[in-house]
């Protein structure tokens, strides 16, 4: 998968930005999408207008961690991996027996967006298995990313020379667009446009950036660790319209 989101849609954490530089503008003249297509000739790219773009391919995938892509009511989702408790989740979200993991993620997000009874960390924590996913809601301009607690599915994120967010499971693609300003997406975490990066394993704790050093000894973005001593403030109660609540996810 590849996703590039405009900095006004999804702002990458400042800690991802390396002082070493070396990044380019991933969207200029189709630079990074063209590179991705050269590696995965069968990739299908979806232009999201001023918000960015996403690309997905079924080539070169791990059969044990398959990729799935779906679009439903202007929600685009790429899922990779396997959810073990999918029968329970299908029932919880009122889906048919033929529904796949990517459909479950879309419906879980829809319930969350439309003021469902559970907070975002609980929704992601309910997914039991090996997974990573990326969802973009065209209606609210919200990005939703997550990776399982063990980091079973490779997923990298970074920021390009213009501050746009770049996401892919292909580390060389992320390097191409972000230079030294990238890192593995933190396991056991999720990211939204409005709420930023949070841990679904330890939702009451803050995350602190830790500079990441590559094999050559250079600082290369940052990893994020749960700060056992720093607690988040209590969440505000869910009030307001669907549009307003979607901005608090």
Automatic annotation (TrEMBL):
- Tell me the domain of life: Eukaryota
Gene3D superfamilies, A to Z: Glutamine Phosphoribosylpyrophosphate, subunit 1, domain 1 (3.60.20.10)
Record's Pfam families?
DUF3700
InterPro entries, per database record: DUF3700 (IPR024286), Ntn_hydrolases_N (IPR029055), TSJT1-like (IPR044828)
CDD domains annotated for this entry? Answer: Wali7
Where is each DUF3700 domain found?
2-226
Supply the name of the protein. Stem-specific protein TSJT1-like
Q: Which organism is it from?
A: Raphanus sativus (Radish)
The gene name reads LOC108862625
